[in-house]
Amino acid sequence: MAYENSQPSKFIIGYGLSGGFGGIQSYMVVEAYSYEDAESMARLRSVEEYESHVGSGGLREVDEIMEDDDVDEQEAEIIYRDEMESWLDYSTEEYTEERYKEIEENYGF
Q1: How many domains does the chain have?
Q2: What's the pTM?
Q3: Looking at residues 100-106, what average pLDDT do you find?
């Protein structure tokens, strides 16, 4: 779904971490000029969520990866990014009042 608007549109983004973290747990309404821009916002929120949990729940820091896997910092950063990508969970959809109310009832905003 690639399109670009001259005026921003509303989207509902969801973000969280998969696995034992429960998947998408947070939602928000954003304005963006394209679906791709809104999706980037959702991914960024998911990355921020990941980074807030690094060091706990099995999410390893770069230093920890270096020690555990006996690799240098550059390799550890690649592993860190790969591990992070495997945990990210996010979604993007066009805003509708009906969908907004459904999410608000189930998750809150």
Answers
A1: 1
A2: 0.86
A3: 90
